[in-house]
Structure formats: C-alpha cells, structure tokens
Protein: ABC transporter permease subunit
Amino acid sequence: MTTATAVPPPPPPDPAVRPAPAPRGKGRGALGTRPWVAACFLLPALALLGALVVYPIGFSVYRSLFDASGHGFVGMDNYQEVFTDARIRTALKNNVIWVVVAPSVATALGLIFAVLTERVRWGTAFKLVVFMPMAISMLAAGIIFRLVYEQNPDRGVANAVWVGIHDTFAAPAPFPGAHPRPTGDLVASGDGAFTTKTAARAGSAVALPLVAVKPEDVSGARDAIPARDVAGKVTGTVWMDFSRGGGGTAGKIDAGEKALAGVTVEAVKDDRTVASTTTDPDGTFTLPSAADGARLRLPAANFASAYNGVDWLGPSLVTPSIIGAYIWMWAGFAMVLIAAGLAGVPRELLEAARVDGANEWQVFRRVTVPLLAPVLAVVVVTLMINVLKIFDLVYIIAPGSSLDNANVLALQLYQSSFGTDVNQGVGSAIAVFLLLLVTPVVIVNIRRIRKERQR
Structure:
C-alpha cells in the first residue's frame, strides 16, 4: 500500500524581484518599434526644428563676426559695439526695468484678482473681463493705448481723467492766453503777469483792455460797461477790447464788447500787494482806498494755459506707460493660471489655520502663497521670457520723439538689422546676446518642469 505525500504550495512571488521582460523582436527598440520607423516619423519634425531654430541660431552667431557688408571679418567688434553704443545701452537698461517690473506687477495683480474673485458671486464674469485683453493682439493693444495716452484730453482717456481730477482741486484760469495790446498801459511784468505803467488814483476809473480772448471763454458774457468814479476808491473795467467785424476804438469800451468776469486785480506798492479783488459780471471792479497810488496788476493765474495733463509718452514716462499697457494685457493670463492653482489648494489647511487663530492676511501670507509658489514660479518665468522678447508694443506706442528712450533689445535688433543704418553684423550680435539672456531663464524653467514630473 503506497502512501501519498503532500506537495507543498509554491512560495509567493517576491515583490522586490521584477519579472524578466518579455523578449523583444529582433531589431526593435525599447518601445517595441523599429528604429528606422521612429526616425521616419521624427525626421519631418527634426528637419523643421533645424530649419527654424538651429540654422538661424548658427547663422546669427556666424554673421555676428562680420561687418555690415558680410564679407569683412571683424571678430568681436560687433559685440564690443553692443556694450558701447548709447542706444543699445539704453535698450539694455530698459530691458532690465521690464524684466523686474512687468512680471512682478502682473503676477501680483493676478494673485490678488484670483484670491478676491473666489469670494464673490460674479467672480467668473470678472475673470472673463480681466482675461479678455489676452484675446487682443499686441498690434491692436498698441493702437488702443496710443490713443489712451494721447496728450489732448479731448482724445486721450488717461489725460481726460487726470485733467478732470486736477481741475476738481485747482480751478482753471478764466481767460487762458489773453494779453493786453502792445501799445496799452498794461505791460508784462514777469511770470506771465501784466502791470500798469502808471499808478491808479482814487476817484478816477481805470481801463484795463485785453485781447486774444477765446470766443468760447466769453460766450454768454455780459456787455462791458465803463466803471463809475467813486470818491476814495479805485475803480475800473476789464473787458475784451475787440468788436466783431472790426471798427471801434482801441482802449475804449465800444458797444457790444464783452466784459471779462472773475479776473483777479491786485494793487501793488513796492512789490507788495496792498489790495485785491475780482471783476464783476459786467467787468467792473472796486479797490479800497489803500490802492490809491498803487499800480494795478493782473496776475498770471488769470491767463495761464489750461492744464493739459501728463505727457505720458514723453521721454521720462514712456517706458512705465508701455509697461502699464503690457500689464493690462497679461494680468489676466497670470490670474487664470493662479486661479487654477488655487483651486487645487487643500481647503483643510486654510480652515486649520483659521481655527488656530490666524487672520485672513496671515492665512494668505503664511499658507496660500507658499502653497501657490510653484504656480507663481511658472507665471513669473513665463512672463520673463515673454518680456525679454517684447517688440511690437514698444514700436507702436512710443512716438518717434521718444522711441530711443523706450528702446528695448528686440526693437534695437530690428533697427540695427533693417533700419536706416543697416548693420546686420551688429543686429546678429544683439540677437546672440538676447539668446544668452533668455537661456538661463529657459534652463530654470526646464529644471522646474523636471522636478514637477518627478513628484
């Protein structure tokens, strides 16, 4: 009688030991594809990459070593000119301002918009409005802001707002540009004021005629009347000494000539104002007895030119103004990316911080911002790369008189290569220099992407 022996079960597989890979077919790569098949698919992309990226870079490096004609080898002379030419140094300085200011401000605004719009019902609509400028091309945005920064307040929105605010706190001059006749008693006394050559006497009316008054400044004004002689007081009339259709007598009030109301009249003795008043609606004025023997002065505030706003596109403000246009376009881009990152922030951490007694500012600064650091880095790096290549916005917005002050490297590259003084050797040197500036930012971005993949 035979005895059956129990066969022990096989041991469980060791998880640390990987199974041997299945044998690949002969001539196949790691993905199970023949190398020549993969090469056939990659060849068009590689050819396009070489034609559009590798060849231009190589040719630019080669061309930067030759003169404007392209035949004379000059070595590093073109690179020396890049760092010695005044226009190129201005462009480099402006690029530094762009890289520091534009990405940081756009990212900060995007962060603020993304955080605040989470707490309102109409947040989606607000995000849509802020992001909408991204749908506009740089060309269209440049044309829009060229009009926004127009010097004339009747056309430029920025100056229309600024002039409105200014005129709210500082009353404009009643009759800008007006002045007396060259042969009259009133003469210029410096700083835009006009003063009589003879002293006024109490009881004797004074005539102070003015010309060059704008018709719109006297529309609806009363007709001027001669002032009455008042004992012990200095009286007079200020009016527009001009009759429609010509005629009339200079220095005399003719029928139909308009009174100038609201004009400040000062009595001056020894360069000291002893009395002051303003003209009535009929142009007349009355000064006290202290004005007897004083000369009468019409201050410059009566005739100062109307405030015309800020010269946004002047040499000193053109670069900040263009940066403002860029931020208007790209703050929405930053907001959308940051809002997407904010949606992935664990709400438990925010609530835990509030339970521990942190206020909203502390939650934002100590929890929200650190958790959004990777997203903020993406936005800043992307905008830095974009800013280093800025060209069309500057070229369109900056007027010819301020173009050199707003110059950037990409614009200088275009001007050096295709402008009036064509020197493609210098233009190629600028292109290579610009590539070297962009390369560190690109490397940082690549490393960041690799770290994100390894998580």
